[in-house]
Every structure is written in structure tokens, then in C-alpha cells.
Amino acid sequence: MTISKNVIMVLDTETCDLSGSVYDVGYTITNKKGDILATRNFLVREIFTDASRMMGAFYAKKMFSHYAPMLDDGLVKLTAWADIVEQIRADVRDYGINIISAYNAGFDLRVMRNTNALLGDGSAILPKGLKVLDIWQFACETKLSQKAYKKLLALAVGYRQQVTLKLARNFAIATLAEITILLRIIPRYQMQ
After folding, report:
1. Pairing mode of beta strands 36-44, 77-79
2. Which of 14, 83, 115, 179 could link 24 by a cystine bridge, Cβ 3.0 to 4.6 Å?
3. What element of type H or E holds 69?
4. Any idea what DSSP says for residue 64?
5. Contact, 136 vs 108, CB < 8 A?
6. Which residues contact 124 (CB under 8 A, 6 or more apart)?
7. What is the 8-class DSSP label of residue 133?
């Protein structure tokens, strides 16, 4: 009997818009024990250097206060999209990644596909068969089942107020450490 190991890529992107102009791709590769195997952070050259696109970015006003020091310190690299995709593919292959995780995995994976359609070769960035762990969904399911949230909901219903899922999701923040702990204590959790 072979025991498979979980190797997780925890991914995050920043975009210029909601349609998918990714300008920042960062990820950490970890095992289920929480050992960091690799960390990468790239600014997409074709997008980041396009002033008209970057004006729509959430962090547009922080380009000089946030990104310039990171570039100077070597914490992030200005890299062509094709090279970023090649590095992701190489890391998935070389580290044996079998789980992709992101705070809003649907969004991050969609905007990466859209950016790849715009700038890439049209082929898939990630191989088929990888499990996807949406931290946002997992955090919401976990946090919303706790007594404090049930009390909040009961209070809101009692006052005939509506509590939206968006409000609840704003409280449901998960970190890499939480993911690591959850993967250890809930081994039967079914990932999508």
C-alpha cells in the first residue's frame, strides 16, 4: 500500500480588474506538516509595466510605496508571463504538488486562465487532476459553524436584520498555519 503525501501550493494573485489581468502572482509550496519547500513572487512584466492597465489595480497607489521596495530588496521579480507559467509548471512537477489552495480559488484560477489566454500559449497552466482547496469556502464552513457565529445569526434574526454571507466571509480569514493545522486534524476532509 502506498501512502500519498500532500504537497500544497498556496497561491494568491492580484489583478488590475475583475476580468483577469493578473499583475502579481505569489505562492508558497508546503507539505502538510507546514514545512515551507519554496516561495515565489512575481510581477507580470506585460501587465505591471502597462500604466493604463495598472491604474485600475487595487494597489495602484502603492506601486512606489509597496512594490518598488520589494523589487529593490529582491522579494519580487519583474518576470514575463511565459516564464512565470513555466516556473509554476516546473514547481508542480518537481515538488509533486497535488493540492492547489487559494483564499478564493475560483477567482485566482479563473483570472490566471484569462491572463494566460491573453499572454500565454493557450495551453493549461496546471495539470488536470490536482485537488483544489478553497480556503475561503473552508474558512466560512469552519467559522460559521462556531457558537459565536450562530449567536450572531440568532441575534440578527431576532432583530429581523439580514446577515449576508459576504459579511460572514469578511470574518472568515484563514492563514497558512490554519490550513496546516486543519489538514492535520481533519484528514477525511473532502477537497473539491
Report:
1. parallel
2. 14
3. helix 68-72
4. I
5. no
6. none
7. E
Q: Side chain identity at 41, as an amino acid letter? A: N
Residue with cell 429581523: 160
Nearest to 47 by CA among 119, 107, 120: 119
Distance CA 67, CA 45 (A): 13
The three three-digit cell numbers of residue 9, written as one number: 501550493
Check pLDDT > 50 for residue 159. Answer: no
pLDDT digits over 76-105, tens only? 899 999 999 999 999 999 999 999 999 889
The structure's pTM equals: 0.73
Give the whole-angstrom CA distance, residue 40 versus residue 38: 7
Residue 70's pLDDT is 86
Helix, strand counts (H, E) of the chain: 9, 6
Instruction: Round to whole Å and give the CA distance between 110 and 166.
Output: 20
In the beta sheet, which residues pair with residue 41? 26
Cell triple for residue 172?
A: 472568515
Summarised one tens digit per residue, pLDDT across range 129-155 is 999 988 887 777 666 666 665 665 555
